[in-house]
Amino acid sequence: MSLSRAARDLADVEAVFDALSHETRRHVLLVLHFRGGEMTAGRIAERFECSWPTTSRHLKVLVESGLVSVEKQGRERIYRLNRERLAVVERWLGWFERSPARP
Amino acid sequence: MSLSRAARDLADVEAVFDALSHETRRHVLLVLHFRGGEMTAGRIAERFECSWPTTSRHLKVLVESGLVSVEKQGRERIYRLNRERLAVVERWLGWFERSPARP
DNA sequence: ACTTTAGTTAGCTGTCATGCTAAATAACAA
DNA sequence: TTGTTATTTAGCATGACAGCTAACTAAAGT
Predict the structure, then answer these.
(1) Is B30–A95 a contact, with Cβ atoms under 8 angstroms apart?
(2) Is A48 strand, coil or helix?
(3) Alpha-carbon distance B11 to A49, whole Å?
(4) Measured between CA atoms, how close is B19 to chain A, in angstroms?
């Protein structure tokens, strides 16, 4: 059973904003971006204070939000930034450009 | 003792993304926008399922993030959308437009 | 086969957010 | 002053989340 378009959009917004609500996750996205868009889990984790499993879970949240994707390569996992996915945020902000109904 | 600019920026991003992480709060902002930018607490609350105190707390979070401000008028409180504050999000997104360091 | 390397999953814990109801405040109306 | 309306604060219960360590999986090296 598939969701309506509106419901899907809402779920996207939910997932993306939820992922962005944690400083570590926002930071991961920036690190990914400034390192060229892709890195292995290990190279990401070594840049953060928290334990590796904790970072791993943050990455999972990011993947589930669609902001990042993973590809397994040998025993490594390569995380890749999906820049286009940030459009979810831009689209949401776009509502505030539309002129409100007048009183 | 004042925070450095960078620390203030970081705190702003934190507060704003945190405020935006809850669907109800995002919804409040949209309602405010489409109703012309300002509403009393009561008129906001009546549009939401959750109890009035719960909405009230959401409003508080929004105010603390700077996305909304309040003004007391008689026994009512008027909540006002601060559209410019959404620039915090835009600025953050702006990082991803900057070209990453090349490898 | 055994070890090392890369990374995730499981399970636990403490903290914090969210929801509720009931009580408090504060302005206005009678 | 008593009551009513508007709204917040207090206090509590529940649940989600983030952190940790330990255990697990899976690929690669020896």
Answers:
(1) yes
(2) coil
(3) 19
(4) 8
Hey, what domains does chain A have and what are their CATH numbers? 5-94 (1.10.10.10)
Distance from CA of A69 to the nearest CA of B (A): 17
User: Which H helix or E strand runs over A92?
Assistant: helix A87-94
Kindly identify which residue of chain B lies nearest to residue A95, measuring between CA atoms. B30
pLDDT tens digits in sequence order for chain B, 103 residues long: 667 888 899 999 999 999 999 999 999 999 999 999 999 999 999 999 999 999 999 999 999 999 999 999 999 999 999 999 999 999 999 999 987 765 4
Spell out the residues 6+ positions from residue A86 whose beta carbon is closer than 8 angstroms to its own: A16, A67, B93, B96
The pLDDT score that the predictor gives to residue A103 is 47
Q: Is the pTM of this model over 0.90?
A: yes
Give Cβ neighbours of residue A39 (< 8 Å, ≥ 6 apart).
A31, A32, A78, A79
pLDDT band at A52 (very low <50, low <70, confident <90, very high): very high
Query: Could you give phi then psi for residue B2, rounded to 5 degrees?
Result: -95, 150
Q: Nearest 5°: phi and psi at B40?
A: -80, 160
